[in-house]
Amino acid sequence: MKRKSILITGGCGFIGCNTAARLAAMGHVVTIYDDLSRPLTELNLQWLRDRAKIEFVRGDVRDRANLFNAVKVGRFDAVVHLAAQVAVTTSVANPLHDFEVNAAGTLNVLEAIRQFSPHSVILYSSTNKVYGKLAGVAVQEMERRYVTPALAGGVSENHPLDFHSPYGCSKGCADQYVVDYARIFGLRTVCLRQSCIYGQRQFGVEDQGWVAWFTIAHTLGKEVTIYGNGKQVRDVLFVEDLVDCYLACMDRIDSVSGQTFNIGGGPANSLSLLEFVDLLGQLAGSRLKYSFADWRPGDQPVYISDITKAASLLGWKPRTDARAGIARLIEWVVENRRVFGVAAKR
User: Fold this and answer.
1) Calpha distance 115→162 (Å, rounded)
2) Interval 139-167 mean pLDDT
3) Do 20 and 30 touch, CB atoms closer than 8 A?
4) Which of 86, 168, 173, 222 has CB atoms 3.0–4.6 Å from 129's, for a disulfide?
């Protein structure tokens, strides 16, 4: 890939800083646009500055004037739009804020590109929550997990959309704007409906980033709450494999513009919460302490991405299996135990 100028909104977040680090290491000119509102994101910014030359613009995607100016000045070859309100629980508590950040904020990004940099590639980080609770799909309860025999290969992009929870609605609204701006305005967009992404630099909390949160809590000796019975299943994807997907989208934009892709670990990297707890205990050498509570709104009993389309059109598939990736996450959390201990006291 030739040297490009790339903007990453939400670039100080977990996925954003991993993406920025990779792109900068490849020689691209990287600009981060982030309001640093999420706790500990300033640590990711410092980590990036210690390793790469990046430009940083402090800003909120709701601030249209500031965002428009950043895009107008930069005229980027590509924009990776990651800035978002990321928790279902927060969206239920404050749906207006959730809409303003996720739906209106994404429309601001699209309009900035349409008006000032229409040649830019736009990659949008959507979510599996656009498929809702997969109503009508038969679920069977096994000893340690739920299964959906009719979707053995996972949920494909052809599955009906069913926004559930304010978060699902706001991200789903943005998802459809991204698709339509390619169709109506000819922008070069790709919509990536991501499953559970995990890895280094993820400061997970109870409401979002459960793989990292369970790992951090285990390292600190804290008990976690499992909402539901723990048999709910997700496919997990290591963050470096996600960045590979972003690069594949940029490389193949002429053939995949306007497309949506379900991006996750796929059936081979699916785990129930109970299975994850078992694996975490094996890798860390001791059991995680946990208790149970009622299900949370919008939780899917099973969600596994069918990644066939991504394999076919992007030439992409995960390279890191769940066991190896989680082992790397544990190592990073243990190395940074002091940071997590201080954060837990805030």
Assistant:
1) 31
2) 96
3) yes
4) 168
What is the model's pLDDT at position 344?
54
Task: Determine whether 167 is an active site residue.
Answer: yes
CA distance 176 to 127: 12
Closest C-alpha among 31, 29, 32, 27 to residue 11: 32
pLDDT digits (tens, 9 = 90+) for 111-121: 999 999 999 99
Which whole-number Å values give the CA distances from 91 to 131, 166, 214, 286, 295, in the listed order?
17, 5, 22, 34, 16
Tell me: pLDDT of 149 over 60.
yes
Structure token digits, residue 228 = 């539901």
Find, among 261, 225, 255, the residue nearest to 123 by Cα: 261
Alpha-helical (H) ranges within the chain are 14-25, 41-51, 64-74, 88-93, 95-99, 105-116, 165-185, 210-220, 239-251, 253-256, 273-284, 308-314, 322-335, 337-344
Which residue carries 């804290």 as its tokens?
222
Compute the Cα dihedral for 89, 127, 18, 36 and give only its sign: negative
Question: How far is the C-alpha of 168 from the C-alpha of 344, rounded, in Å?
Answer: 29
- What is the rounded distance in angstroms from the CA atom of residue 292 to the CA atom of residue 295? 9
Q: Can you read off the two tokens belonging to residue 312?
A: 């076919």
Count how many domains the chain has. Answer: 1
Are the C-beta atoms of residues 121 and 250 closer than 8 Å to each other? Answer: yes
- What average pLDDT does this structure show over 146-172? 96
Share of the chain above pLDDT 90, in %: 91
Report how far residue 319's alpha carbon sits from residue 314's, in angstroms, rounded to the nearest whole number.
14
Catalytic pick among 33, 124, 131, 167:
167
Distances (CA, A) of 141 to 60, 138, 198, 239: 43, 10, 26, 30
The domain spanning residue 185 has which CATH number? 3.40.50.720
Please give the average per-residue pLDDT across 26-42, as a whole number: 96
66 touches 188 (CB < 8 A): no
Return the closest-CA partner of residue 199 out of 236, 249, 244, 247. Answer: 236
Tokens representing residue 271 in the block:
């785990």
